């Protein structure tokens, strides 16, 4: 019996093509979106209000969780903003502008500042701080909330210039140096809500002095401070 060997199929290598749109294609796509997209035909002011309602209607109190590799588990809450570049451009800072961000520890605050861009932080208007009246938390709060004297900063800048060159600075995702004090980090902040949990009555005097300094050094920001005694 004669054995017939089946020939191996011959596969042609894929053609060298690119999926990147040309400048003309981008212009055509943009024009078609303007003419045919019902959403893009709506006035920008109305479209922004729709986007705000979409963001606010999906609120969830879901703390970020990490797996064993330290990877943040999350999903994109507004996938429709990735439909086209115009929508993404119009809404990329919207969640930061209309949402209030709450921090319970100094580490949470520092991670947020380090992982957001200056543009995103510029859009933030409201911050919430939930503090415990202990040495570590209050020291951290004083460090980020108290404004330093500008003249002292200028004098120290020249003295520490050489030292700073040898030290690594924190950078955000854009590679820019990050200022962790809240006024430089959030230049357009309008409201700061602070809740302080005091474990003993004697802590009230400490908190009272700190609040007085805080109000004096941070004029222009609406401060809402609530104290409570935890038993």
From TrEMBL:
Q: What is this protein called?
A: Uncharacterized protein
Compositionally biased region (Acidic residues): 148-174
Q: Which organism is it from?
A: Didymella glomerata
**Disordered, as annotated region:** 1-20, 148-180
């Amino acid at each position: 019996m004669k054995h017939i060997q089946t020939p191996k199929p011959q596969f042609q290598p894929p053609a060298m093509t690119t999926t990147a749109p040309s400048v003309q294609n981008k212009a055509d796509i943009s024009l078609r979106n303007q003419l045919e997209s019902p959403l893009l035909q709506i006035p920008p002011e109305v479209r922004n209000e729709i986007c705000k309602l979409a963001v606010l209607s999906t609120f969830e109190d879901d703390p970020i969780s990490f797996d064993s590799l330290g990877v943040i588990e999350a999903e994109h809450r507004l996938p429709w903003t990735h439909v086209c570049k115009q929508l993404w451009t119009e809404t990329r800072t919207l969640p930061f502008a209309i949402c209030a961000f709450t921090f319970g520890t100094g580490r949470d605050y520092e991670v947020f500042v380090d992982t957001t861009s200056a543009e995103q932080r510029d859009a933030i208007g409201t911050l919430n701080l939930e503090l415990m009246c202990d040495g570590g938390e209050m020291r951290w709060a004083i460090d980020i909330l108290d404004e330093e004297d500008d003249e002292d900063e200028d004098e120290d800048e020249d003295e520490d210039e050489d030292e700073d060159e040898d030290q690594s600075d924190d950078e955000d995702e854009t590679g820019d140096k990050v200022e962790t004090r809240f006024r430089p980090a959030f230049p357009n902040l309008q409201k700061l809500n602070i809740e302080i949990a005091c474990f003993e009555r004697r802590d009230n005097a400490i908190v009272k002095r700190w609040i007085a300094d805080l109000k004096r050094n941070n004029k222009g920001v609406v401060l809402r401070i609530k104290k409570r005694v935890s038993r």
